[in-house]
Structures are given as C-alpha cells and as structure tokens.
Amino acid sequence: MSDDAWDIALPPFDADNALLALKRFARDQGLAERSEDWLLAGQAVLTLALDGATIQARLAKRPARSPEWEAFTLQSAPDARRLQDELRRRLLRWKDDR
C-alpha cells in the first residue's frame, strides 16, 4: 500500500439544510415547535437559531420552567449529529425520570 495522502475535501456545511434536518429530527422525537423553541410537555428544552453559516443551539440540562442551558455551535455535519445524539440521550433520560 502506498502512503499517498487523500486530498478529498469535505463538502461545505449547509446550515440551512442542517437546520431543517434538526427540526425534522426534533419533531420526530415528539417535541413541539414554538418559534425557535422546541417544547417537551410545555417546557422549552431546545432552541435552534441560524447564525450565518452556523447554527446556534441551546439544550436544556433538564426540563424546567427556567432551564439551565448548554450552548452548542454547529459548524459541520458531525456537530449536528452530535447534537442529535445528545438530544436523544437526554430525552430517554428525562422519560425514565418521570
């Protein structure tokens, strides 16, 4: 095998399409959309906002009327997948806590 470097560039991050995919994912997980907020049982647990070529996201550490937020800046497709995975984990944990 040769040690030639693979000079394949990753496709550019399309924030608009990634935001649509995140919204679709949140809806599939049973969250309700209200403006930029996503609600679980009437309490905001996720906020998504387009910021130029990135997506600014906030994910609640636990559902509450005034939740403590964790901020994420999504600049690539792997960042968006990590947010989806983290949202899925938290939703499962929250449902177990009920």
Would you kindly provide a brief summary of this structure?
The protein is α+β, with helices and mostly antiparallel strands. It has helices at residues 15-28, 77-97; strands at 32-34, 37-40, 43-51, 54-60, 69-74. The longest helix has 21 residues, at 77-97.
Write a structural description.
With 98 residues, this protein is α+β, with helices and mostly antiparallel strands. It has a domain of 67 residues. Helix content is 36%, strand content 30%. The protein is built from two helices and five strands; from the N terminus they run H-E-E-E-E-E-H. Strands 1-2-3-4-5 form a five-stranded antiparallel beta sheet, covered by helices on one side. A hairpin with a 2-residue loop joins strand 3 and strand 4. Helix 1 packs parallel to helix 2. It is elongated.
Descriptive terms for the model:
2 helices; 98 residues; alpha+beta
Query: What's the oligomerization state?
Result: single chain
pLDDT average, as an integer? 90
* Main sheet summary: 5 strands, antiparallel
The Rg value, from CA coordinates, equals 16 Å
Low-confidence stretches: none
Number of helices: 2
- What percent strand? 25-35%
In total, the number of strands is 5
SSE topology:
Layout: H1 15-28, E1 32-34, E2 37-40, E3 43-51, E4 54-60, E5 69-74, H2 77-97
Antiparallel strand pairs: 1-2, 2-3, 3-4, 4-5
Helix pairs in contact: 1-2
